[in-house]
Design a protein that fits this description.
Blueprint (H helix, E strand, L loop, with lengths): L7 H10 L7 H21 L9 E5 L5 E3 H14 L5 E6 L6 E2 L9 E9 L10 E9 L10 H4 L6 E9 L3 E6 L4 E7 L4 E6 L10 E3 L10 H11 L10 E2 L5 H11 L1 E5 L12 H14 L3 E3 L20 E4 L1 H12 L4
Parallel strand pairs: 3-5, 11-12, 11-13
Antiparallel strand pairs: 1-2, 3-4, 5-6, 6-7, 7-8, 8-9, 9-10, 13-15, 14-15
Helix pairs in contact: 1-2, 2-3, 5-8
Bound molecules: 2,5-anhydro-1,6-di-O-phosphono-D-mannitol (AHM) and magnesium ion.
2,5-anhydro-1,6-di-O-phosphono-D-mannitol binds next to strand 5.
């Protein structure tokens, strides 16, 4: 069948046929997620038209102002996912504690972690935003309510991770540990159609993405690395291009396709960086590693090996094309402090 008629549902079902022991639960979860994505996409697209913009006046648990679309997306994810019978527990960047499955619903064997609308401070300016998700198998006993320990598993235990970017098109990208695949939402059919099969991130990067406004707070090795990227040499090495949207999903999506490195470092102001291990760094690390890239914390660890200690823990991240991450690792480890 040609790519143009391969819906995400069909693709997931066909992938599942290759695994004789599969129960279909993971496929059902992914289908539910793609439905939530369609609804959020519709709301994001009409954000400029309806009176949904502006602050609600509420603050989220990190003390940041929350916009209505964040709340809408969070509630949409919860309501789309809590009754399918496949989940034991959930956690969201927008909720302080774990999200229990209501007692009236069946408990399943999976755990869902998500950032319902990442980059939402960009919405008023019509800049791309995204939803990020991560799925684990529960470690608590079947049939009992899921626990916080189910949510605090290291990233290498993920069974599925993905994101939806609401940009010039809406694209859903996911991995189930068998490559990275992208599906573009056809607004006429309301279906996600296979558009990017088995995505591999170019080994060499051409792009770097970092908030350079924080330069003065960076560690010396990082300053040297960025200066190195901006420089050329007489052996034909060209400077990198700087691209920074300020929406992790959009920045990572572009770098995944074109080759690049995305960095949100620890610095003098943010000792653990800004991005959250469970909702942002782990799912992106799983995807990028599946696409042939790397993701590290700059402290000698792979992101996927970190053992989470709390739901909203932040970690520094250096993620993208393999050669670029190898290089930044070298600069940082050799720095004089
Ligand atoms: P959010 O979860 O509050 O939306 O913040 C996460 C976003 C990421 O999408 C993006 O990479 C980062 O914040 C940008 O931060 P900064 O403005 O400090 O560069
Ligand atoms: Mg976020």
């Amino acid at each position: 069948m040609s790519n143009s008629f391969m819906t995400i549902q069909r693709f997931i079902l066909e992938a599942e046929k290759k695994h004789p022991k599969a129960t279909g639960e993971l496929s059902a979860l992914l289908s539910d997620l793609s439905l939530a994505a369609k609804v959020i996409s519709l709301e994001v697209n009409k954000a400029g038209l309806v009176d949904i913009l502006g602050y609600t006046g509420d603050h989220n648990i990190h003390g940041e102002k929350v916009k209505k679309l964040d709340i809408f997306s969070n509630e949409m994810m919860i309501h789309a996912m809590n009754h399918g019978g496949h989940l034991a527990v959930m956690a969201s960047e927008e909720e302080e504690g774990i999200i229990r499955i209501p007692e009236r619903h069946h408990l399943g064997k999976y755990v869902l972690l998500f950032d319902p609308l990442d980059g939402s401070s960009n919405i008023d300016a019509n800049v791309s935003v995204g939803t990020i998700f991560s799925i684990y198998k529960r470690i608590s006993p079947d049939g009992t309510p899921g626990t916080i320990s189910d949510c605090l598993q290291p990233g290498h235990m993920q069974v599925v991770a993905g994101y939806i970017v609401y940009g010039s098109s809406t694209i859903m990208v996911y991995t189930a540990g068998d490559g990275v695949h992208g599906f573009t939402l056809d607004p006429a059919f309301g279906e996600f159609l296979l558009s990017h099969k088995d995505i591999k991130i170019p080994t060499k990067a051409k792009i770097y993405s970092i908030n350079e406004g924080n330069y003065k707070y960076w560690r010396p090795g990082l300053k040297k690395y960025i200066k190195y990227l901006q420089d050329a040499d007489d052996r034909g090495r060209e400077p990198y291009s700087a691209r920074y949207i300020g929406s992790m999903v959009a920045d990572i999506h572009r770098n995944l396709l074109y080759g690049g490195i995305f960095i949100y470092p620890d610095d003098r102001r943010n000792p653990n960086g800004k991005l959250r291990l469970l909702y942002e760094c782990n799912p992106m690390a799983f995807l990028i590693e599946q696409a042939g890239g790397r993701a590290i914390d700059g402290r000698g660890n792979k992101i996927l090996d970190l053992k989470p200690t709390s739901l909203h823990q932040r970690v520094p991240i250096y993620i993208g094309s393999k050669e670029a991450v190898d290089m930044v690792e070298k600069f940082i480890s050799e720095e004089e402090i």
